[in-house]
Design goal:
Number of helices: 11
Order of helices and strands: HHEEEHHEHHHHHHH
Largest sheet: 4 strands, antiparallel
Strand content: 5-15%
Shape: elongated
Amino acid sequence: MDGVAPSLCNQGEQKLSDDLVGKLVEMYQSRSICGSDILIRKRELETCYFGKMKSDVYCRMYNKTKEVKSKKDTDFPLRWEDNGWNRKDEVIRVEFSLKRGFLKQLSNDEDVSLKKICCNVENIWRYLTERWIRMVEEVKVNNSKTSIVTEFWTIVQNSFSEVVTNIVRKRKFKGKITQLYLQGMGCISQMISMGMSDDNDVGYLNSTIDCINDLLRNQDKYGEYYRRRKALGLV
């Protein structure tokens, strides 16, 4: 007998050639720098995942503009406009999910508090976007560290640069007020429709309007609006 492996296995199936096995191994080893592990499509939204969702750290990227439109969210666009959005450009969101195990590795197995994380956001973000994953123009297999980072990824890397000026962000509720108004009117209209005995039951409609009017005035009398405004940070 010689030392050459048979071309067929004991099930009668043909074995892969050594060259093909080598190519598959190379593809597997380079998968993390050549594309996303998972691409999930939901209607027109596409979400790319890098890393395993069950692991201690993974990244996902998706078109936030499409998500906002699909959910009819009016709050996010107002925030974007405050930061120079022209209502035409696509907004791509980059998120990282970090579990305690990964954070402990970064801190030499020490317990990590929320305060410590917040104080080191810049360093954590730099590690994630410069060492854990990068988006480059072309992958240089022999030395991937010299690959040129894309313009988009440069913006991502600078998202949590050090703040030299203390900024107090004033909350804006213009978009939320519109949403809450439409939701509230929808709920009230639904209740009236269900409570009317027939299409001509104007009495139920008027009594409901009077009841709501009295309730809203009493809430002002007993300080309900003040308590809510205080909880929202408006007073």
